[in-house]
Description:
The structure holds 2 protein chains of 2 kinds.
Chain A: H1 4-11, H2 15-37, H3 40-56, H4 65-85, H5 96-108, H6 116-126, H7 132-143, H8 148-155, H9 159-180
Helix pairs in contact in A: 1-2, 2-3, 2-4, 2-6, 3-4, 4-8, 7-9, 8-9
Chain B: H1 2-17, H2 25-38, H3 41-54, H4 60-92, E1 97-98, E2 101-102, H5 109-123, H6 133-159, H7 161-178
Antiparallel strand pairs in B: 1-2
Helix pairs in contact in B: 5-6
Amino acid sequence: MIDLELIEQCRGGNFTNFRKLVELTSPFVFSVALRMLGNEDQARDVVQETLVTIWQKLEKIKTAEVYKTWIYRIVVNKCYDNMRRVKRNPEFNANEATWTMISNTVSQVPSAELENREISEIITVLTQKLSSKQKAVFVLSDLEGMTNDEISEITGLSKTAVKANLYHARKSISEKVEKYL
Amino acid sequence: MNQENEKYNKVINILKNSKPRLESTEDIQNEVIKRITSIHPFVSAFTGFLDFLFSWVYIGWVRRSLIAASVALVAIFVYQQGVILKRIDFLSRQTIVIGKENISDQTDQVEKILMNYKNEVRKLPLRTVTISEKQMNELIESVNELQLKYKDLEKLIEDDPEIKKLIEKKLNEINRTKI
């Protein structure tokens, strides 16, 4: 649990406490980054960049309650930057074999835990046609379980825009699921 | 439609329940600490200042554009200030003349004439005549001194009728020669 005391100690330049903060923060930062980017290496880079930014801007945090929202905002923005950077790369096109593999993975594991590689592949294929905003809203809402208010605060979008982006994202993913799985 | 939803929910549930696992967190910790300690304080302060100004902009390219625009505006402002100061400095070295009257409080006629002369000189190309303020003051002083001596001479001539007569005679001769 991240408390204000730990944040205060980190503000004082204490690296030992910062290590503890990194330990507590990096798992959910990695979770959001991997789900948004669908690439483990890029997600690890985003985790590093986010943690460096957290260290630099730690004095902005006034209460422990806003800490998580604040970090989500940083990681989402870092993911946006990353998506823009790698946009020029050739788009990943899922072929028949990929869909079969995904279908098998999904059907074989009814209630559980996929590997990072499998999560990356499924998310990449499903969210391939989504814009970065739609992807962020989908990940935060359906995978991270956040409310529209929280998503609005994190992404800077209005609640109406959040709803609209979520609707389009769900529709697009739903169509793919129906068509290929 | 229900079947479609069912499939969608199934896939989403699997993805939701499968939390991505971050391995070798120790490496990430070390890398982050390394990066933090290598950041130069000046760079950190500068980026901190930019963040303070533009942290309200969430979109990366908009933020970068705003930073670039503001830097350009500041550069233009500084350049303009430089030009204006240079111009003010140049103008402050000029004597302001309204019509034929010099606004200088020096009442001496010779000084007025000399100041007008100085202004006339300024109209000439810079390479033709160059005279400093010090030289001009020396010139004014020497002219004043000359004028005093001239007055003394006039008085001397007035006092002595013979010299006056002689000078008048000489002047008449000169005038005649000229004609």
